[in-house]
UniProtKB/TrEMBL annotation:
Descriptive protein name: Uncharacterized protein
Region (Disordered): 1-70
Length: 253
């Protein structure tokens, strides 16, 4: 599963990205993940990665959020988005159980983009598989889901903090945030490593010096990440996750 950057401006071919004093692309700063580009591609676009300029203009006009020059949120657009998301959450997906439910507990107030202006022509953040859709769960993932649901059956109401997982309690989360409500993050760089400082006390330090992954016997909550630069693109591969992560629509990465 490959993801395009959440916000990708259409850039002139002569553009050069900022560089750190040691020559790496400079990603440092405070960032947020709100974007009008959906995580998954609408099936109507098939394998088409980009909108036309006309399609982008139309989507910008009909999207919710804060219009240029206005400070108030368009309540009608946000209410319509809530109705649509609730309808999707009530439909089943046997290949990805729970996928359509995740996120339905938030209303659109928490997801309203800072602008209705389209900043990317991409039809989805997911770029691989070619259809821009999250793939179906593997057989093992489905079996794990079923086992978890069976273990939770007939337990009664969840009345104490012991009945709630750490992500639901906003203590820890899984991986990097994608397609959720706004999650601010800070990025720091030093020679040979990059650091993502996220919400919920998550700090991911990613070596860029070519060192090997940890041995397979060592597992961690956020896994073991190793990064490298391919031109101006940061590529991060993460292995060695423990088995304590919750299931859900987007697994740790």
């Amino acid at each position: 599963l490959a993801l395009a950057p959440a916000i990708q401006a259409q850039q002139d071919s002569a553009y050069m990205s900022p560089r750190t004093p040691w020559g790496d692309p400079d990603f440092q700063g405070a960032w947020e993940n709100r974007t009008p580009t959906p995580l998954e591609r609408d099936p109507q676009y098939g394998t088409r990665e980009f909108l036309t300029e006309e399609e982008a203009a139309s989507r910008a006009q009909t999207g919710g959020g804060l219009p240029d020059g206005e400070e108030g949120v368009i309540a009608e657009d946000l209410a319509a988005a809530d109705i649509s998301r609730t309808a999707r959450s009530n439909s089943l997906d046997s290949n990805r159980p729970g996928q359509k439910i995740s996120g339905a507990e938030y209303n659109s107030f928490w997801n309203a983009p800072v602008s209705s202006r389209i900043t990317s022509l991409r039809t989805s953040q997911v770029i691989d598989p070619p259809d821009g859709r999250l793939p179906a769960y593997t057989r093992v993932a489905l079996e794990n889901w079923e086992a978890r649901e069976a273990a939770r059956a007939y337990r009664g109401e969840a009345d104490t903090w012991l009945d709630r997982n750490v992500m639901e309690r906003c203590l820890l989360r899984t991986g990097l945030a994608m397609g959720e409500m706004n999650v601010p993050k800070d990025i720091y760089q030093t020679p040979g490593q990059i650091v993502f400082d996220l919400q919920y006390g998550v700090v991911r330090t990613i070596p860029l010096d070519g060192r090997p992954h940890l041995g397979s016997a060592i597992t961690q909550w956020w896994g073991d990440s190793r990064g490298r630069w391919e031109g101006d693109t940061l590529v991060v591969e993460t292995t060695n996750f423990n088995n304590m992560q919750r299931g859900g629509d987007v697994m740790p990465s």
